[in-house]
Structure formats: structure tokens, C-alpha cells
Amino acid sequence: MDVMPLLLLVAGSAAVAGLARRSPVPAPLLLVTAGLAASYIPGIPDYTLDPHIVLPLLLPPLLHTAALDSSYLDLRANLRPVALLSFGYVLFATLVVGYAAYLVIPDLPLTAALVLGAVVAPPDAVAATAIARRLGLPSRITTILQGESLVNDATAITAYKVALAAAVGVAATWADGIKEFAVASLGGIGIGVVLMVPLHWLRLRLRDSALLENTLSLLIPFTAYAAAEQVGASGVLAVVVVGLYLGHRSWQVDFETRLQEDAVWKVVSFVLESAVFALIGLQLRVVLRGLGEFSAAQALWYAAVVFAVVVVARFVWVFPATYLPRALSARIRAREPDTNWTAPVVVGWAGMRGVVSLAIAFSIPATVQAGGPFPARNLVLFLTFTTVIATLVVQGLTLPPLIRALKLPGRDARAETLAEAQAQSEASRAAEALLDELLEDRRNALPGPLSDRLRTVLERRRNAVWERLGTVNEETGESADETYRRLAREMIDAERRVFVELRDARRIDDEMLRTLLRRLDLEEAAAYRERA
After folding, report:
1. pLDDT band, residue 531 (cuts 50/70/90)
2. Rounded distance, CA 430 to CA 499, Å?
3. SS3 (DSSP) at 250
4. Other beta carbons within 10 Å of 69
5. Cystine design at 228: which of 154, 233, 401, 518 (Cβ 3.0–4.6 Å)?
6. Dihedrals phi, psi of 362, to nearest 5 degrees
């Protein structure tokens, strides 16, 4: 197996993603553009998306990281809009886009058109949520977009399987389709529920070994996905359920595990997301080569129609889904915050498609059951590719200025800091009361300076957040808390340099150096996390 193309992909995509962090262009858009350009560089190998790799090997870890970072409580509070988008909208888009393609493209069977509709139905909200967080969108919109992206792939894959069965000539009825959907969705959720508790229990049993826990953490999404797919259920939903549960219970694992796990999954997510978006652009040469009997003008006309229908269909669904439930139910009006027209506009425009659509499209078989070619398979691949590119470029580039133009209320940073300060005060008071109780026991006797140090740490934590609400230094623009942390890190750097000098002078060995540096690293990590 030649690993050089894989190394080129990972290294190149990581370099472009790194550059994107220093530019105003979102990383997914820059990566797709770089992939498009690189696809025609002489010597660049063909990177054909293999659905047997993308779906079982790339999708589970990406879903798992997104689920770990999501809030189970926020998703539960917004379950209705998330479900309407991830289930209702995907099925609606499948039918609308499929029927539009059937009307526009001559000789395209309705079943094959519905396959296309299912393929391009699920938005990939990675880029949308990244932009939402960067611009400080209201947390409810971000939660809805993130929740949609976690679940909609399962709906689309199931709809695709039903439409494909009809397209290739396998007998399929509406009852079969409903049964397939029920087995996939309920089975995926059930597998996730069955796995989540024992997996969490196993993590807690391994709490003395952060390395073993993180090894298990890396295996969990693949295990959940494979277990569900093995019985015909949705691996996507199984991964999401397990990830949400483990993320909700992550406070129970050892601190060292959390530090390592956070770093490990950030690296995994960065590498995979970068490679995935670069792969999208690199498909251009592969897709154009197989276009076949369709002329460029025909293919571009069909692409424009499909893209327009995809965009319009989302707005046609989002606005009624936003306002009709509120109009029909007083309970919903009382429970959910009021909204104006700007929020559904942003949600409607944030419908970028991604690699899952392309992976599903490449899994379309070349022939039908009777032995003939699958109708317009190459055109379906092309239309999927152009829809993904168009939504990423057109909607991705215009979403930030749209959000700024609409002037949506952003996050209230002062209110969030105030809530953080109040929570820290309550926690510190509880810890201080426990410290007083523990120190009364002779078994916990400490010299005065050490007990004072424990109290100082509590007081420092309690005051740190309040200080962020105070005045800033006119010279540096820093709050007193920020200045404190900066000086603390500079002192840590000074200690670190001395430790290295002592090692170089052979006064301590490398093993002792690593022990001392680790202590400083944990202190610096704690300071950095407080600031973040």
C-alpha cells in the first residue's frame, strides 16, 4: 500500500487549515478551494472518495467529537426544532429535490432522481457552526445547527437506502420504507443506549490509567458505529447517543484523562476535518472525467437548477417549521423563547453540504439488478459535487456578512461572566466549608502555611472571575486577572529554563526533568484554561 498520497493529503490539508486560522476565510472554504486547485496540479494522484472508508472510518470520529462538545441539556431543550430539521427537512428535501430533478432531466427515472434527492439532502453544519461561534451567534441557533448536523446523516442514509432499493429494481413498498426507517432510527438509538452505560462504567474502572482510557475513547465511536450497522441499525445515531452521554458524564473521569482526551480529540478532529474538506475539492477531476454523454452546458444547467431547489427548499421548510408550531400550540409559545424573522433566515442560509453527500453518491452501484447501468450515475455524482461546492462557496462566503447585516443579538459576554462568577463563588464557599471540616480532624493536620495556601487557592479562584468584570489596565488593556496570569506564566517559563539548565549541567537527569516540567505544564494548562 502506497502511503505517500495519504501523507501528502494530511500534510497539505493541515498546512492549509493552519493558514486559514490567520485569514478571515473560514477553513472549510479555503480547504475546498485548495483541493479544487490541487486537483489539476501535475503529479497529484486521484483521490477518489471510497464510501467504505469515509462512512465507517471518518464519519464516526467526527460525529463523536461533535457529540462530546455538544450539550445534552441544550439539545433536549431544543429537541423540536432539531428534530424538524434533522428528520422532517431531510425527507422533505429528498422528495422536493428528487422530483425537481425528475422534471428537469430528460429520461431520468423518478427512483434515480429520489436517490439524488437523498444524497444532497443532509446539510453538513461543521462550517456553519464554526462561523456561528466565531461571530458570537445566539447559543440557541448554534445548538440547533449543531444538533441538526449530528442526526441528519442518519435520516439521509436511510432515505438513500430506500430510494436505491427501488432504483436498482429491488421490490420496495412504502411499508418497506417506513420499516427500514423505523429499524434504522430506533435501532441506532437503542444500540447507543445499550452501549453508553457499560462504556462509561469501563472508563471509570480504568481511571488509574489515562492512556488506557484514551485508547478506549478512540475505539468507542468505531465500536458503536459497527455494532449498530451490524444489525441494520443507524451507526450515526448510535455514535451520537454514546457521545452525548459520555460528554454529559465527562466530569466523572479523572482530570488527567480529561486533559489528554481533550488534546487527543482536538488533534483527531483537526486532521480529519482538514482532510475531509480538502478531499471534496480533490474530487473535481474524478467527477468531470466520468460525466460521459452529457455536455458541459447541460450538466451546468442541471447543476444550477438542483442548487437553486436545494436552497429554496430549505427556506420553504424552515419558516413554517419555525412559526406554525408556535401558532398552533400555546405550550410551545410559553416554553420556547420568541423569535423574529432573522433567526430562520440564518438557519435557512446555513445549509452547506459536505463530504457525507459525496461519500453516499460514490456508493451508488454501477449497475441495477437486471444488469444494465444505473441511470445517469455519473450525472448524479456531478450534481452532488456541484451542489456541495456551490453551497460551501456561495453560502459559506456570504453567511458571515449576512449575520452581520441582520445584526442578530450576540452572546452577552458580561452576563455569562457574571453567571460564571456566581457559580465559582458558590463552589468555592462549599469547598472552604469542607476544608474547615477536614482540618478539624487530627488526621488531616497541616502546618499553617500549607493550610493558608489551600485557602489562598480557593480565594484566588473565587476572585478571578469577578476581576474580569472590573476595570482594565490603560497601558495593556488587560484586567487585573489577565495580568496576574500573564505574570504567572512568565514565572513558570523562568522555572522551566532553570530546570533545563540544571539538566544540561548534569545536576538532574532527564527523568527528573520530565517530572518537573509536567508539574509546570499542568499549572500552565490550568492558567490557560481559566483564561479561555
Report:
1. very low
2. 37
3. helix
4. 15
5. 233
6. -70, -15
Residues 6+ apart with CB under 8 A from 409: 138
Helices (H) and strands (E) in the chain — how many of each?
25, 0
Q: Are 78 and 142 contacting, i.e. CB atoms less than 8 angstroms apart?
A: no
Give the Cα separation of 500 and 391 in Å (integer).
52
Q: Give the closest residue to 190 by CA, choosing from 231, 162, 151.
A: 231
What distance lies between CA 513 and its chain's CA centroid?
38
3-state secondary structure 437-464: HHHCCHHHCCCHHHHHHHHHHHHHHHHH
**Which residue has cell 522555572?**
495
Among 455, 356, 404, 371, residue whose Cα is nearest residue 121: 356
- For CA atoms 263, 269, 272, 275, give the dihedral sign: negative
What pLDDT digit, counting tens, does each position of 263-273 carry? 888 898 888 88
**Over the stretch 399-448, which tens digit does the pLDDT of each residue have?**
888 888 887 765 656 666 677 667 777 787 888 788 778 777 777 777 77
> For residue 113, which of 121, 104, 101 has the smallest C-alpha distance?
101
Cell for 269?
A: 478532529
Contact of 456 with 463, CB cutoff 8 Å: no
Lookup: cell for 389 = 461546492
Q: Count the neighbouring beta carbons within 10 Å of the beta carbon of residue 155.
A: 28
Write out the three cell numbers for 118.
437523498
Q: Does the pLDDT of residue 97 top 50, yes or no? A: yes
Residue with cell 545536576: 507
**Grid cell 498546512 in the structure block, residue:** 15
Amino acid at 429: R
Are 406 and 327 within 8 A, CB to CB?
no
The single-letter code of the amino acid at 490 is E
Contact assessment for residue 245 and residue 200, using Cβ atoms and an 8 Å cutoff? yes
The residue written with cell numbers 508539574 in the block is: 519
